[in-house]
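Chapter review: from sequence to fold.
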Amino acid sequence: MQTVLMPEAVDQAAPPPPPATLEEAGLARDHVEQLLIKTLYGSELAGSVLAERVRLPYGVLEPLIERQRAERLIEVRGAAGTGSAGYRYALTDLGRERAGQYLSVNAYVGPAPVPLAAYVAYMRTVGAARGYIDRARLRQGFAHLVVSERVLEQLGPAVNANKALFLYGPPGNGKTVIGEGMGRTIGGDMSIPYALDVDGAIVTMYDPAGHQTLEADGDQVSIIAPAPVDRRWIRIRRPVVVAGGELTLDMLDLSFNPITRFHEAPLQLKANGGVFLVDDFGRQRIRPHELLNRWIVPLESRVDYLTLHTGRKFQIPFETFVVFATNLNPADLADEAFLRRIPYKIRIDDPTVEEFTRIFEMNCQRRRLPFHQVMVAYLQRRHYGPAGRPFRACHPRDLLDQISALCRYRGIEPAITRELLDAACRAYFVRGGAAGAPVPGVA
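The token string follows.
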């Protein structure tokens, strides 16, 4: 994900407090004991490190560890400090045998899961704490882009409504970037659990590839000064999850791994509390109406239903702002019943000459290239007007990339000349037709 300057957020939900007892953690004793045994499988860990691995206070784990010692599943191999938190624990032969049994049932090893009920309660808090944006905050969030006032005036109410949105229009005009930018405009941060406990089944939630953590690597909490928050949760920036042509219906349901025997959360659950952008909608490997039918209930009732591999179905909050970005006509992709559930449809048109000039200048500044307005005038006169070629918001970036690549190949300092602009346009735009007549470029 691209990192941009975030607006100040005032709508943040407080992280859950740390549990003082196993009952407050909401977990069954047997499940936590199994997790401890699996964590020690093949390892020798100090009590404090073991607590860090499962993200529960050592005071909560200590009686469980003592119970397992009494059952001769765990033994003490030494001490690295005072108190039992400094003991080095390892599995006995019986403990290793038991760990093998546990791993065959469920191979999950990591932070202790959070009960489904606790997650539901937290997401209700997130939804209630979500504030509204105004013009100043919206403009600040899109300061890195050139977006028309008309589009901004439509985006603001759509973001505040937190329902669903169609972004449509010609390709190459920034629908994807605008969709991603809405999540960053909302701003703020939130917490998500590393994993959920749904009636004993594990559903992993945190995805390092799609979630931007706000916690420093190697952060640990001492025994003397315990964490002020429940460390089974991780603090992240408000998520922005993007799925394109690869999206299938299977990716919107729980993914069960038959080898590890635990589930992975679907994309919309990972995006909960943030934005889920369906890019290039209508170009997925499934028919559009099949995908849309999957969203009818969540968009209407703001809850989603997921099914475990056992057949157990459960309800989950749907606090996701869904954005459909497409260069196809929404009326050709969905019927009236579904379009009613997407109350905002915003067309992203081709940029005007003035907007195209600002985009060109902004891209020159990012590449530290000198900008002259005559460059745009030359492009319009030489490569756009005669070919009947429309401006696209992506053209300045792509043409300047072409020029930079050509200058590197020639071993010269990057610069913008008419000769280089001509070369970039010849390489970038498509010419076709029986007589070789120019046709609009594709981006």
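Two observations follow directly from the output. Confidence is low (pLDDT under 50) at residues 1-10, 433-443. Residues 115-347 form a domain with the Rossmann fold fold (CATH 3.40.50.300).
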